[in-house]
Amino acid sequence: MDDGPPDSPEHFDDPPPGFPRDLTVVCQTCDGDGWRYVGRAAVIGGRVAAVGKQEACMVCEAVGRHRWTTGPGAWVKRHERRPIPEH
Predict the structure, then answer these.
(1) Coil, helix or strand for 80?
(2) Which residue in 72, 76, 12, 65 sits closest to 38, CA to CA?
(3) So which domain of life are we looking at (predicted)?
(4) Which of 20, 54, 67, 84 would you call most buried, defined as having the most Cβ atoms within 10 angstroms of its Cβ?
């Protein structure tokens, strides 16, 4: 029996009304776990692996999945938000 965490859900909640629809791709990139990555990244096994700073996903933050933090208890200012790296 596998005691690991369940896989990420295939269905992602819609962002709240008025939230830019084109940002839903951010939520898909973070696999719904609320985290996305900036800086250098590599695709390993079909998933984006971070090499650098870790940030909360803007969509997950907007739908209340998780607070906007970088590391334990550190708040990220809005002007520090970066786009998902292209891969």
Answers:
(1) helix
(2) 76
(3) Bacteria
(4) 84
Report d(CA 22, CA 8) in Å as an integer: 21
User: Of the candidates 63, 56, 60, which has an alpha carbon nearest to the alpha carbon of residue 78?
Assistant: 56
If we measure between CA atoms, which residue out of 60, 59, 54 comes closest to residue 41? 54
Residue from 43, 45, 38, 44 nearest 85 by CA: 38
- Reduced to 3 states (helix: H, G, I; strand: E, B; else coil), residue 26 is helix
45: which 2 tokens?
């096994």
pLDDT tens-place string over residues 4-29 = 445 544 455 565 566 555 544 444 45
61 phi/psi in degrees, rounded to 5: -65, -45
